[in-house]
Specification:
The complex is a heterodimer.
Chain A (H helix, E strand, L loop, with lengths): L1 H28 L25 E3 L7 E2 L6 H5 L5 E9 L5 E11 L8 H5 L6 E3 L13 E3 L6 E2 L5
Parallel strand pairs in A: 2-7
Antiparallel strand pairs in A: 1-5, 3-4, 4-6
Chain B lengths: L1 H4 L9 E6 L11 E7 L2 E8 L7 H5 L8 H4 L7 H16 L5 H29 L4 H21 L8 E2 L2 E2 L7 H24 L2 H7 L7 H7 L4 H4 L7 H4 L20 H23 L20 E9 L2 E9 L7 E5 L1 H7 L1 H5 L4 H11 L3 H5 L1
Antiparallel strand pairs in B: 1-2, 2-3, 4-5, 6-7, 7-8
Chain lengths: 158, 374
């Protein structure tokens, strides 16, 4: 009785191992079912999803104009102090003084990509870009100024 | 308390102490176990914590009620969505509003997808811990497909931050339903593969069956929750006991077992994955139309008082306790994390087993260390 049980256990054990080997054997002989992508090689075709949160950018139009009014809503909404907005006083056409954006400083190294600044922005001035290769040699290079030099506020944005 | 902090055990002759861990502090989960051994038999275990403490609770005290949610993604990083949801629900409780019906259903679907992906990673790492490398790759194949859904709709794979008080941050992506159905179909086909490769494997069964017995009484007294407690016969599913979001409207089973050993904890999670699939299938075609977010004020101020919300994460019960003084940021936030309580039972259940069994016990308790330290 003991011997019979022992032999049965051995056969059952071997069967369970073969069952698992069958699965691995299937993928070994069917390389088309393997989904692994080799990352740096597929760089040309690799596309992130449109909502992917890579970094905060400020889109400019062809006239070098952006939509940021310098209202600092994003700076208040940011949980980490990633965004720093420096404003300046500017004279408008009818001689009134108005607050305008001077520098939009974005610390990418502190950003957790939580999207709070994007939904807080009342004029849709900033968006998330789908970039994903952010490694640099110096941490200082991750401090970015988002508004382009000499850029202006777009007409009609208040 | 004294026994927990001070090392009051003096080693007898033939006994010795080894340290398991910690690895380098920059790795994601660092746990240090001081193990007293007699030969290969474990006499006593003392976990040392704090290697990855980031003071998320203290940090939240200076953040607004909208902003503190993002930090909870970094607690239990495998169930970031459910952590976010718990915080959003707690703030909603304080504001006395409810999320829109659409948001509720989407939240439930995403929570169950999170549970699936978390259990798949657990299955992968359990195999890896016990010497089977192949499951790791197979589980990641399906997990990647789920993370693609997250990526498309929420914009991130792990730290989504998709929940805001009142509903969701954006509406779901137009591809969401189609992609989810495709992924579910793929996952359902692969469950048989999972069983073939690991569940029935004789080496795996020998290493887990009868190892790390946790009694129902111990589970109750240590506050163990989640699949670990359900394997000992303790019914503790928050989705059944205190339903939130769209859970009252779905039909699912709370998986219970009475064995209480490592193998039974393994089986519970395997069955839970199938339940998650069934929950998503019930909801995916019935997402109600309407707003994805309830209107909230620009600056959220909670009334003076205390608010507690609990949810079921893949590892157990997560509680969010907010004390409000009527200001725009919380006076105090306390998280009751499932992993902390689950770890506290480890010294009790590992006692008397061999050092090799400790790996199996830790694997099946499914610890996520950043959730312990916060």
């Amino acid at each position: 009785m003991f011997l019979k049980n022992y032999i049965l256990t051995v056969f059952r054990s071997i069967k369970s191992l073969l069952k698992g080997m069958k699965v691995t054997g299937y993928y070994f002989t069917h390389p088309k079912n393997i989904l692994t992508q080799e990352y740096p090689d597929n760089r040309a075709t690799l596309q992130m999803f449109e909502r992917f949160k890579g970094e905060v950018v400020m889109p400019h139009n062809t006239n070098n104009e952006h939509r940021c009014t310098g209202c600092q809503a994003c700076e208040i909404a940011c949980p980490n102090g990633t965004i720093k907005i420096i404003t300046k006083q500017e004279l408008t056409a009818d001689g009134k003084k108005k607050k305008r954006l001077d520098t939009f400083v974005y610390h990418h190294d502190m950003c957790t990509l939580c999207n709070m600044c994007i939904i807080a922005c009342p004029s849709d001035a900033i968006v998330m870009a789908q970039t994903f290769e952010h490694s640099v040699y110096d941490k200082k290079m991750l401090k970015k100024i988002l508004n382009a030099p000499e850029s202006k506020l777009m007409e009609g944005v208040e | 308390m004294r026994g927990l902090i001070e090392e009051d055990y003096t080693t007898k002759e033939g006994e010795f102490v080894i340290n398991i861990g910690p690895q380098h502090p920059s790795t994601h989960g660092v746990l240090h176990l001081k193990v007293w051994l007699n030969g290969e038999t474990i006499i006593k275990i003392q976990p040392h914590l704090g290697y990855i403490h980031r003071s998320i609770e203290k940090m939240s005290e200076r953040l607004s009620y909208r902003n503190f949610i993002f930090a909870t993604s970094r607690m239990d990083y495998l169930a970031a969505h459910i952590n976010n949801e718990a915080c959003a629900l707690a703030v909603e409780k304080g504001l006395q509003i409810e999320a829109t019906p659409r948001a509720k259903v989407v939240r439930t679907i995403l929570s169950e997808l999170t549970r699936l992906s978390s259990h798949q990673l657990w299955w992968a790492s359990t195999g890896l811990d016990l010497g089977a490398v192949t499951p790791f790759f197979y589980a990641f194949r399906e997990r990647e497909a789920i993370l693609d859904i997250m990526d498309e709709t929420c914009g991130a794979r792990l730290t989504q931050n998709y929940m805001v008080p009142g509903g969701l941050m954006n509406d779901i992506h137009p591809n969401f339903q189609k992609r989810t159905k495709e992924v579910l179909k793929q996952i359902k086909e692969k469950f048989k593969e999972y069983d073939d490769i690991l569940t029935g494997n004789v080496i795996f069964i020998n290493r887990t069956k009868g190892v790390g017995y946790l009694s129902k009484e111990d589970a109750l007294s240590y506050g163990v929750t989640g699949p670990t407690a359900r394997a000992s016969g303790l019914s503790c599913d928050i989705r059944k006991w205190a339903p939130y979001s769209a859970y009252p409207s779905v039909d699912f089973e709370e998986i219970l077992d009475t064995e209480g050993d490592s193998y039974s904890r393994y089986l519970i999670r395997m069955k839970e994955m199938k339940q998650s699939v069934s929950i998503i299938e019930q909801l995916i075609d019935n997402i109600p139309e309407g707003d994805f977010q309830e209107k909230t004020k620009n600056v959220i101020k909670l009334p003076k008082g205390e608010f507690y919300q609990r949810v079921e994460t893949p590892r157990g019960e997560l509680g969010v306790y907010i004390v409000s003084e009527g200001m725009s940021s919380p006076y105090r936030i306390k998280y009751r994390s499932p992993n902390f309580s689950n770890l506290s039972v480890l010294p009790t259940i590992a006692k008397g087993y061999k050092i090799g069994d400790l790996v199996a016990i830790m694997a099946t308790i499914d610890l996520v260390i950043p959730d312990i330290d916060r």
